[in-house]
């Protein structure tokens, strides 16, 4: 399973979902790789000290002589490794202009290491540019986090259009694994309405597990921990654990 976590809307919970889903998969004992494809490097910084990093996904994807195996680092979590990012990734688009295989770079670089990592999670940037397209071309599955907010569904048409384009040619096998509602506030009527709206658009694709608002989920990256060690008894930990179970059932 290679699951891309994508939504071009910013701040909807992509990184929070990527790091905690990857940690939950790793907890279950299978080797897991988290690929940070966002120049903001939020996933990377959630587990590693940026000073530890010399080579990143950018080097692997931009340079024919560098493999992903050369950039992957272990995290403090058992079974969880990370292909780190840094701001240089933002230059990738310019670097790959005119290259015939620009959309396939990540897929090609993942091919030789897939046997080492049965589970791969890709954290995407908040755009529908070349980086996200590389993730969609490489992925077997797509998971879309949607923030429980008034503007929740704004932009989903563009995302679905991009998915259809990727399916039409480079990756017909790409499946939408599901939509996860994030930052939900159970107490408000508005949140209930929004949930119904999202279910109207995505139907059975919406995961039963809803991620509620939780300060613990905001705090854990600052301590370089996943929610499972930082606050194992929190709502965030049980929700991301249940999401992981749903993901495995569907994959
Ligand atoms: N369930 C939650 N409860 C409370 N805060 C959350 C929750 N999920 C995410 N956040 C916080 O909301 C902010 C945005 O989340 P996150 O970084 O995961 O989104 P993103 O989609 O990756 O953003 P970007 O588009 O910038 O990459 C972060 O500060 C994060 O800690
Ligand atoms: Mg992010």
Model description:
With 251 residues, this protein is α/β, with parallel strands linked by helices. 39% of the residues lie in helices and 14% in strands. The protein is built from 11 helices and 7 strands. It has helices at 14-27, 42-47, 57-62, 92-96, 105-110, 130-138, 156-168, 189-202, 215-219, 227-230, 235-250, and strands at residues 2-5, 32-36, 73-74, 80-83, 119-123, 141-147, 175-182. A 7-stranded mixed β-sheet has the order 3-4-2-5-1-6-7, sandwiched between helices. Strand 3 and strand 4 (80-83) form a beta hairpin. Helix 1 crosses helix 11. The longest helix has 16 residues, at 235-250. The model has no long low-confidence stretch (mean pLDDT 96). The structure holds adenosine-5'-triphosphate (ATP) and magnesium ion. Magnesium ion (MG) binds next to helix 1. Residues 10-16, 38, 40, 42, 126, 182-183, 211, 213-214, 217-218 line the site of adenosine-5'-triphosphate (ATP).
Task: Name the features.
single chain, 251 residues, alpha/beta, globular, binds adenosine-5'-triphosphate, binds magnesium ion
What share of residues are in beta strands? 5-15%
Could you tell me the number of beta strands?
7
What average pLDDT do the residues reach? 96
What is the rounded distance between the termini?
A: 7 Å
Backbone shape: globular
